[in-house]
Amino acid sequence: MAVVEVKVPDIGDFKDVEVIEVLVKAGDQIAVDQSLVTVESDKASMEIPSSAAGVVKALRVKLGDKVSEGSVLLELDAAGAADALPAAEAPSAPVVPAAAEPAQPEASPPVALPPAAVGVGFASEPRQHTPPTAALPVHEPAATTALLPHASPSVRKLARELGVPLAEVKGSGSKGRITAEDVQAFVKAVMSGQTVTQAAVVAGVGAGKGAASLGGLTLLPWPKVDFAKFGPVSSQPLSRIKKLSGPNLARNWAMIPHVTQFDEADITELEDFRKSSNERMAKQGVKLTMLAFVMKACVTVLKQMPAFNSSLDESGENLILKDYIHLGFAADTPQGLVVPVLKDVDKKGLAQIAKEMGELAATAREGKLKPSDMQGATFTISSLGGVGGTAFTPIINAPEVAILGLSKSQIKPVWDGAAFQPRLMLPLSLSYDHRVIDGAMAARFTTVLGELLADLRRVLI
Question: Does residue 194 fall inside a structural domain?
Answer without folding.
Answer: yes
